[in-house]
Design goal:
alpha+beta; Immunoglobulin-like; four-stranded antiparallel beta sheet; 18% helix
């Protein structure tokens, strides 16, 4: 019976040492900072009410991280009834050029991200275009990496 108690004591001591070392190691390790908590980040809300169709309620977090224009889009509303487009523009010297677009049908709580490396002197803009909602063009978020 004493062998069992000794074994339990050794396991307890081992677990305690591993637990303390594990916590200390985790505290020394640099954990990544969420994009929304970084310096220079902008958070924009897009709220479009539409009686005939789904409402658009998005949170857009935009920032320049390591010379990379970054957009994180989160659907805060209901599932989209149809496809919509997320369009990315390069804005330089007062003129805009569409770089890419992505057709999406957001589910409730769904997230999407865009990143563009080395945008140079240009600003990068994002425009959300739901297919069931006609809205005037206006950037929903913009990033400048200089």
């Amino acid at each position: 019976m004493t062998a069992v108690y000794r074994l339990l004591a050794i396991i307890t001591i081992f677990a305690t040492v591993v637990g303390v070392v594990g916590v200390a190691a985790a505290q020394q390790r640099k954990l990544p900072v969420p994009l929304s908590e970084r310096q220079g980040v902008e958070i924009n809300d897009v709220n479009l009410a539409q009686a005939a169709g789904g409402n658009v309620n998005l949170e857009i977090v935009s920032a320049c991280v390591n010379n990379m224009a970054t957009f994180q889009i989160v659907n805060r509303g209901d599932e989209w009834p149809k496809l919509g487009k997320l369009k990315i523009y390069e804005i330089e010297n007062g003129s805009a050029r569409e770089i890419t677009e992505r057709s999406m049908r957001f589910a409730e709580g769904q997230k999407a991200s865009f990143r563009m490396k080395n945008p140079g002197e240009a600003s990068i803009g994002l425009f959300v275009e739901p297919s069931w909602y006609d809205r005037p063009f206006q950037y929903d978020a913009e990033v400048v990496c200089k």
